[in-house]
Amino acid sequence: MENNIVFFPKLKDRIINLGKKALEEKNFSKALMLCNQLKEMNEQNSQTELAAVACLLEGNRTKEARERCEELVFGPFESDEAIEVYISILFQLKEYEELQKSIKKLLTQKRIDENQMDKFQAMLSLSKKVISEREGIKGEILDLHIVLENSEPIEKQLELINELRVIDCNLVLDQIHEILKSSKANPLIQSFILFILQEQSIEKDFELNKVNQRMVWNTSVSVNEHKTFVDAILKKLSDVLESEDPSAFEIAKAHFQHFMTIYFPFIPIPAEVNTWAACFYCIVQQYFDRMIDEDEIKDLFNVEHFPVKSAIALVKRFEEEGYFNIKG
Questions:
Q1: How far apart are CA 302 and CA 236, in angstroms?
Q2: Which residues are registered as beta bridge partners of 13?
Q3: What residue ranges define each of the domains in the chain, with the CATH number in brackets?
Q4: For 143-194, what is each residue's pLDDT tens digit?
Q5: CA-CA distance, 282 to 293, in Å (whole number)?
Q6: What is the pLDDT of residue 1?
Q7: What is the DSSP annotation of 26-42?
Q8: pLDDT in tens, 188-219
Q9: Cα 280 to Cα 263, 268, 277, 298, distances in angstroms
């Protein structure tokens, strides 16, 4: 019965065109749905499958992207175009044994371009080194006590947290759980841990307690609200400041982005775009020792002075507590 299904004429072309449009509009979930539809119709090609892999990566579905990309590289299509993407995914997932095996197989098949040979040989060498080091430290557990207690300067804590990038976070999950739910922990350090969990696609639920807000967080949680808030404030700052004073805009932008890294994945309360845009506008004016006129702030941002003053006070407190004093 299934063999007798007849699809509408030019349906494949229609789906491909819709998929291209969805990609252009960055509607990755729709583009993925259309790629899947082509696959169900057995009308996929290497390009549509590579597009599906890209959509999965955009959706933070790294493990699914890995499986689909592996099929694309070593399956019927034998797509050489997807090789670099596949190797990068394995590297991101820290699947060094599989990365080593895949590179060796591709070298045997003579499918690695000469221009990329040095890069892949370097990755092969690095994977061997990491595998060797893993065998050497197997059973050792990273002690994150100073992070939990926030008992050392932030630079020292960052050095320790960076070690998480070269080990499997599953080895220290209990400690990570404790840090993320601790009111003592540095919120910036907590953010960096969340980023590492995302990089490693650790699919666990974590109780998160920071900046007086709580939630249950995992790597699949949408951060659209956070991103939308950041984009809206940067746009407002750009509208008000960028053409008038590009240097001041870049300083305000960098300071605000760092502030929002501290808050990740939350947004500050009250979540008023104009209030926070005005806050960082005032901070950068103070940086240049410029007078700030309350009426001017009200005209530019349509806000009252008190909430802006409160927002500035919070940023200043974060500065005093050392959250902005990161070197390098």
A1: 12
A2: none
A3: 2-137 (1.25.40.10), 145-217 (no CATH), 224-320 (1.10.472)
A4: 888 888 888 888 888 888 888 877 778 888 889 999 999 988 999 999 999 9
A5: 9
A6: 35
A7: T-HHHHHHHHHHHHHTT
A8: 999 999 999 988 888 889 999 999 999 999 88
A9: 15, 13, 5, 14
Span of 99-103, 136-140, 224-228, 232-236 with lowest mean pLDDT: 136-140
* Distance from C-alpha of 113 to C-alpha of 133, rounded to nearest angstrom: 29
For 94, left (φ over 0), alpha (ψ -120 to 50), or beta? Answer: left
Report the alpha-carbon distance of residue 176 to residue 39 in Å, rounded. Answer: 40
pLDDT tier for residue 131 given thresholds of 50, 70 and 90: low
Q: Which residues pair with 48 in a beta bridge?
A: none
- What is the rounded CA–CA span in Å between residue 321 and residue 310? 17
Residues 6+ apart with CB under 8 A from 37: 15
Half-sphere exposure of 176 (CA within 13 A, CB side): 24
Residue 8 has what pLDDT? 52
pTM for the full predicted model = 0.60
Nearest alpha carbon to residue 253 among 226, 281, 272: 281
Please tell me the number of Cα atoms within 13 Å of 295 on its side-chain side.
Answer: 0
Report the C-alpha dihedral over residues 132, 67, 61, 46, rounded to 10 degrees.
Answer: 120
What are the angstrom distances between the C-alpha of 281 and each of 48, 52, 253, 264?
Answer: 45, 41, 9, 21
Cα Rg for the chain, rounded, in angstroms?
A: 24
Helices 11-24 & 28-40, crossing angle to 10 degrees?
160
